[in-house]
Amino acid sequence: MTGHSPGDLIAEYRRTAAGTPDLADLRRAIAAYPPLTAVNATYLAQPLFVPAAEITTFAADLRAVVDLAVSLPERVFDGDAVRYCAALGVDERSAKLLTRRGWREPPRYGRADVYHDGHGFRLLEIGLNSAVGSTTMAAHLPRALLAVPEFAEFACRHDLGFVDTADRLATAVRTAAAEIGVRDPVVALVEAPGGMRDFAVAWGLLRDDFHRAGLVCHVAEIGDLSFAGGRLRARGAPVDVVFRCFTVDEIVREPDGEALFEPIRTAVDDGVAVHWTPLDSHLYGNKACLALLSTPARRNYLSPEEIAVVDRVLPETRRLAAASVPAYAADGTELMLKPNASYRGIGAVAGWAVTPDEWARALAAGAAAGCVVQRRVRPRIETVVDPAGTKTGWHALWGVFYTPDGYAGCTAKAVPAGVPGVVTRGARAAVFHHPA
Q1: Cα torsion through 294, 299, 302, 306, rounded to 10
Q2: Residue 1 — very low, low, confident or very high, per pLDDT cuts 50/70/90?
Q3: In 274-405, which ranges are E strands?
Q4: Which residue in 333, 334, 341 sits closest to 253, CA to CA?
Q5: Three-state SS at 416
Q6: Which of 430, 435, 394 lies closest to 148 in space, CA to CA?
Q7: N or C: less crowded end of the chain, CB within 10 Å?
Q8: Of 182, 63, 79, 175, the residue nearest 112 (C-alpha)
Q9: CA 56 vs CA 50, 120, 129, 172: distances in Å
Q10: What contacts 390, CB < 8 A, 6 or more positions away?
Q11: pTM of this structure
């Protein structure tokens, strides 16, 4: 069956689920799916659906915005690393780590966080960074549902599909390793010191997916790395690709962070290892980078066509200065405050979820600390029917993955529509594409 609208597909799923107990609540199937049994998460009772043409069209615009972000140092600052980092509010120690390579472009891999406002996808963060999470969920959640025969029949009838992010990522890693003459690289997923306490399960899933794709893969912390015998090693095992699971903030928090990073630096400089992705990819996921794409001054360095692409997907995003605090204080219900270099929603303040006094204080602190304000995006309501037949509304944060080859899958997490603020944590949802 093809040619259905998203609304028709959701209605058909509800009708089918109403008479099929195994479809009424798919959470049990997900929790029992072998790769996910160790994952500590909650799940949505039904999947989310998106037209394939809509998500791939958005992904093309997303790639264009990422390319524009990467071009900003040259366009705006004449390649001057010091000026660019100063404009982003990057501290001196971090800047030294981030700019050591100069301005070589980072590989285009990451996960963009987006809302759907009922008309189209709207970009919140580009996430150009290999430390992004949920990499394996874009495929494991759909596969868990397809293991239910009744759902597999529904999916076949409606031409549902998904993209395996880990498989696309394995291809990208192989391509990167070819730059140092390695065809089948040994990969190390490398966390920050102590990072495995919280993320061992998540990175273990990606390790297993890489194994299935034919890549030898280890999981380690950065302190487990050494450079010996002309090779980078993880607990003694030779490594060709460092898949970075840590952030620059996690390195500079360590008193000996630069020393911990030294084996990677040496191996990359000697051409015997690839750093995926290099630390300097953080320079383009910084929120102030989005502000450079959104500011009225962009007309000095972006063409009208480029501005049109940005405006299609990116809500208005501005650097916060002390002089602009009064204006933004009066418009708090339509604004979000975000620290430049934060992730997972850390430090973000939704103006509509706090009192006017709290919003004013947050703006004053944000102007001093270096933040952006972003125009509020109201996510559309996703209607979910629970096992008792009750309809509830949810807001979904969609995670759109991309690699150098383009669109690389999608996952989502959702919270009840009445929850104030923004979606940072929530029930995970499988995402399926369908013909429109």
Answers
A1: 70
A2: very low
A3: 274-276, 317-319, 335-339, 349-350, 371-375, 382-385, 391-403
A4: 341
A5: strand
A6: 430
A7: N
A8: 63
A9: 10, 12, 20, 19
A10: none
A11: 0.94
What is the end-to-end Cα distance of the chain in Å, rounded? 11
**What is the per-residue pLDDT across 11-63, written as a single tens digit (0 to 9) for each?**
888 888 777 777 777 888 898 999 999 998 999 988 999 999 999 999 999 99
Query: Cβ distance 242 to 227 under 8 Å?
Result: no
Residue type, 249: D
Handedness of CA 259, 264, 265, 270 (dihedral sign): positive
Contact call for residues 401 and 110 (beta carbons, < 8 A): yes
Q: Which residue in 416, 283, 264, 286 sits closest to 342, CA to CA?
A: 286
Give dist(CA 295, CA 252) in Å, integer: 30
Which ranges constitute the DSSP H helices of 19-80? 21-24, 27-32, 52-77
3-state secondary structure of 407: strand
pLDDT-wise least confident of 67-76, 82-91, 177-186: 82-91
SS3 382: strand
Q: What distance in Å separates the CA atoms of residue 135 and residue 125, rounded to the nearest whole number?
A: 16
Calculate mean pLDDT across residues 322-328: 92
Neighbours of 159 (CB within 10 A): 15
**What is the mean predicted confidence (pLDDT) over 215-231?**
97
pLDDT > 70? residue 343: no
pLDDT tens string 285-304: 888 999 999 999 999 999 99
Q: Which residue has the tokens 């600390």?
A: 369
Mean pLDDT, all residues of the chain = 91
**Nearest CA to 306 among 68, 69, 71, 108?**
68
How many C-alpha atoms does 246 have within 13 Å on its Cβ side?
Answer: 27
DSSP codes, 179-247: GGT-SS-EEEEEEPTTTHHHHHHHHHHHHHHHHHTT-EEEEEEGGGEEEETTEEEETTEEESEEEE-S-
